[in-house]
Amino acid sequence: MTGYSKLLMSVAVCLAGAGAEAKTLVYCSEGSPEGFDPAPYTAGTTFDASSRPVYNRLVEFEKGSTTVIPGLAESWEVSEDGLQYTFHLRPGVKFHTTDWFTPTRELTADDVIFSFERQGDAENPWNQYTAGISYEYFNSMDMGSLIESIEKVDDLTVRFSLTRPEAPFLANLAMDFASIMSKEYADQLEADGRMSDLNQQPVGTGPFQLVAYQQDAVIRYRSNPDYWNGQQPIDDLVFAITTDPAVRLQKLQAGECHIMPYPAPADIEAIRSDENLTLMEQPGLNVAYLAYNTQVPPFDNPQVRRALNMAMNKQAIIDAVFQGTGEAAKNPIPPTMWGYNEEIQDDTYDPEAARQMLEEAGVSDLSMKVWAMPVQRPYMPNARRTAELIQEDFAEVGVDVEIVSYEWGEYLDRSSATDRDGAVILGWTGDNGDPDNFLGVLLSCAGVGEANRAQWCNEEFTDLINQAKATSDQEERAELYRQAQVIFKEEAPWATIAHSTVFMPMSSKVQGYVMSPLGSHQFDGVDISE
Amino acid sequence: MTATPDLASKPPAGTRRQMLAELWFYFSQNRGAVVGLWVTIALVVVALAAPLIAPHDPTMQYRDAFLAPPAWQEGGSSRFLLGTDAIGRDILSRLIYGSRYSLFIGAVVVSIALVGGIVIGLVAGFFGGWIDAVIMRVMDVILAFPSLLLALVLVAILGPGLLNAMIAIALVLQPHFARLTRAAVMAEKNREYVIAAQVAGAGRLRLMFRTILPNCLAPLIVQGTLSFSNAILDAAALGFLGMGAQPPTPEWGTMLAEAREFILRAWWVVTFPGLAILLTVLAINLMGDGLRDALDPKLKRS
Amino acid sequence: MIRFILGKLLYLVPTFLGVTIVAFGFVRVLPGDPVLLMAGERGISPERYEQLMQQLGYDQPIWWQYLEFLGRLFRGDLGDSLVTKSPVLGEFLTLFPATVELALCAILLATLIGIPAGVLAAVKRGSWFDQISMGTALIGYSMPIFWWGLLLIILFSGVLAWTPVSGRISLLFYFPEVTGFMLIDSLLSGQDGAFGSALAHLILPTIVLATIPLAVIARQTRSAMLEVLGEDYVRTARAKGLPWRRVVGVHALRNAMIPVVTTIGLQIGVLMAGAILTETIFSWPGIGKWMVDSIFRRDYPAVQGGLLMIAAIVMAVNLIVDLLYGLINPRIRHV
């Protein structure tokens, strides 16, 4: 046992002996949350720190799968025509009592209505409670035009009326942006003139409540004593924000944290052979891609895009960046997802042919930018390195690449601009197990300027997507999605790079952690054995 | 044909050669300084001859040899003597080409800072009065900020890149030269030989550059070597923070930035660039120490 | 004496104004629309743009803007951070104690080791101790400290596991912040092992940050001592038969300390610059790391405020050193 671990142990023993058996789980997270209100954001890092510990949703995903189970709503009915969803809320759900808020009532339909109306209604005083805010998911998923109205039937019953049938709707309500806020708290903040506090001092119904956030360093949570789904085995939850994966692993090995995400692929072997550590792994429901800006010439020409795709050596990227822990991607959805089109042929790696195609398209001396993310994501361990490999590959066919990067929050912000200069490396982990969540959010016309980083609006493709959303017959939907993937391959708004395997190293003492296929990290039900 | 011989500004050639010989004599007494000199010369040779010496192209990615260990370790080969980095580039070649960048950075930065600083210092010291006051205040303002911080902010304004990093560092180092020059000028200004030259009809410019300046050279040279090594360290720090030379440029600091994640897995990616920086800066500082001792016999040691 | 102090203070006023001009001006030199930059928003409506323009005062002439900036400055308003939306001054003061704690420990280490080493090297001039210590000092002086820190982490935290990897204290401890100095707060909290943990976390960052000041102080002490030891009065004292220890330890040392004290004080700039790199490597939550993060995040109000505060602190420390020097060395007081 290392000297430092001994110190830690003696501390734990002292604390235990003192009668204060505070069990603390330390999670070495990979980045800082953008805020504690999940609705304006899309980054998993933010959700891990906000919606997952602090909030609940009407329905939730069963741990470890994408099956929808009751959450704050204990039951629901869907009308015959698929236009009305009536939810019966669980009685007796309490909001957090924190240093900054004491609830006087339990969860009611008012809270549910507030949580959605503030995002969709531009007139709502909460819509722009922080200047320049944009509800990315709500907008990309077209919720505004989908939801006709939300009525309060009674205190514990809410009815959503839709303008058209939408098969994934239930799964969508289990997503992070659909977290339920406390209207009472919001009213109090509004009265006090402190509306921006909603994003800094959250109040929810979730298993943990926020205690303190030390910017870029530590987030502390306390287990919610009134949680409707039962007491947590641990008392305190701490996020130690550690951006460097090598440092994360060092801390895990030293016993300074119990569990960490996104190890560097180069360290996987070392983790496997360490007997104090457990390594969980799962094929990720994700994709990494290079999105061209299809609105800016010469990238508005599909032939140019296809040519560049053929210039890219994907296997080298899998070897160098993923260290073999992933597979080259040919479609925008991963092979584990239903609706995946097996038949599609990937672009072959052929720099000669690529060069020719570029010439034919009338492109010579092309100079372009490639954006590389500064952080590690589950779908992309090292975007910088990927960009360097792409730079070399494109140089082979006469294209000069400049690599640019921004701080993560800014990167996400700037890359969604419709006049963005350059192709951006990004990726996506599925949010609800439905192909629409990939194809609709990332590639449909509604997503342009938001999550559709290729700024690609193809009528045919979007029509297929919308049709697939309207029916609940999965076979029919799968067929439509397969057709959509064919169009995608022809038009090539992206270079699909890879689908990764997601790893989760943790101390062997950690019990009850279940990996989510959706890439989120939640700690309810997790325990530490002695 | 000049009416009077220009005694003050043109010492006889014999004396100059004598001075240099004397300088060399004192300098060579200091073993460390001589070692520093040889290492620096070797570095210059390496930098100049990089395309001839380096076994590989520094940006060439060998896709079959990612993270190869150094030749003497298991798994290494003599193809890549010091191993390769994460995308298969030969580290030895990158270090060799990197010396070009480091020496280039040092030379350019010191040149800009030296020239700028001297001009400013001469003007301030010579003219005195409110010109001097204003100039010195501006220098004080620059010196009030920690050098790396100011350089970082400047690069943030100008945009990351090697050129901008050099400009930023030169700006930050320049007040030292200005101050030195000014102090020396003020000390020499009222000396007899200067007054003699003035009386003989020498113009202002001539007085500044040909009369006074040559006698202020000693501290400037020493400061020059100090700034050279500081420039290399600062440029490497900026590269490490991601604000200096951008990949795939084989600048030593930038190489360290990319290597952080391999601390435990591939020590050679982290160790060698840092060692290169250390040895280079050490050599220059040794030389600088020797120069200082040789130029100012009062402080002579050992 | 008072005139001396006042004189020094007056001297600083134009420099401080210059610093404010730099901080004020740097935002306006940045590429991009200043209103959007300072507001940190993307895609805002024309009405909102107008509103912000008025709020930030960009519609006024530049000299008016500067005066208004100065006015806000003297009221303690450094603007709000774009990231946290809370006052920059508040954030700075929250993070400042961490850097001060680290800097104080570093300068303490540098002085405690550097001065004795320098004295001994001077006294035993030419000996192996002199050669080795000055050689080591030169290496320390030439070291890229970010690399040095990484090496130490590999060795002490990784291979030997003697020290923790990052942060100020083990995360299992949570107590209210009283002074902001972890060493003091951990003692006050009364929790077992807290102080030990705080100390353990301070070791490596202190060593790394202290490296350059230590080298400089050691060299400076040696050269100052050598100069003093060569003085006539020292030789006279020896000739008189005074014990060598006394001569060195009392008389020579006191006179050698004068330039050394100045050097120590002037290390503040080096410490601030070093803090940037040290805090980044060790994830030490101080203002060095905050400045780097703010620059990367384009949090311009924070960068502006931080620049001002740091420059002001450096100037203040230099002033104190100047005054102290005047106290110790009566000769310059009356210049």
Question: Which key terms come to mind for this protein?
Answer:
B: 302 residues; mainly alpha; C: 335 residues; 0% strand
Brief characterization of the structure:
The complex is a heterotrimer of chains A (530), B (302) and C (335). Chain A is of the alpha+beta class.
Report on this model:
The complex is a heterotrimer of chains A (530), B (302) and C (335). Chain A is of the alpha+beta class. In chain A, 31% of the residues lie in helices and 20% in strands. Chain A has helices spanning 3-17, 44-49, 51-54, 109-120, 136-140, 143-146, 169-172, 183-192, 245-254, 268-272, 302-311, 314-320, 351-360, 383-396, 408-415, 435-443, 459-470, 474-491, and strands at 24-29, 59-61, 68-70, 73-78, 84-89, 147-154, 157-162, 208-214, 218-223, 236-241, 277-283, 286-291, 326-328, 367-371, 400-404, 423-429, 494-507, 510-511, 527-528. In chain A, the strands form 5 sheets. In chain A, strands 11, 12, 13, 14, 15, 16 and 17 form a 7-stranded mixed sheet that branches. In chain A, strands 1-10-9-8 form a 4-stranded mixed sheet. Chain A has a 4-stranded antiparallel sheet with strand order 4-5-7-6. In chain A, α16 (435-443) runs antiparallel to α17 (459-470). Mean pLDDT of chain A is 89; it is low at 10-20. By secondary structure, chain B is mostly helical. Chain B is built from 12 helices and no strands. Chain B has helices at residues 13-29, 31-48, 50-53, 91-127, 129-144, 147-158, 162-188, 192-199, 204-212, 217-240, 252-259, 267-295. In chain B, α4 packs parallel to α7, α5 packs across α7 and α8 (192-199) packs antiparallel against α9 (204-212). The radius of gyration of chain B is 23 Å and the shape is elongated. In chain C, α5 (88-123) runs antiparallel to α6 and α8 (182-189) packs antiparallel against α9 (194-229). Chain C contains 14 helices and no strands. Helices cover 77% and strands 0% of the residues of chain C. Chain C has helices spanning 2-29, 34-39, 46-56, 62-74, 88-123, 128-142, 145-159, 182-189, 194-229, 232-240, 244-282, 287-296, 300-328, 330-333. Chains in contact: A-B, A-C, B-C. The interface between B and C is large, with 45 and 47 residues.
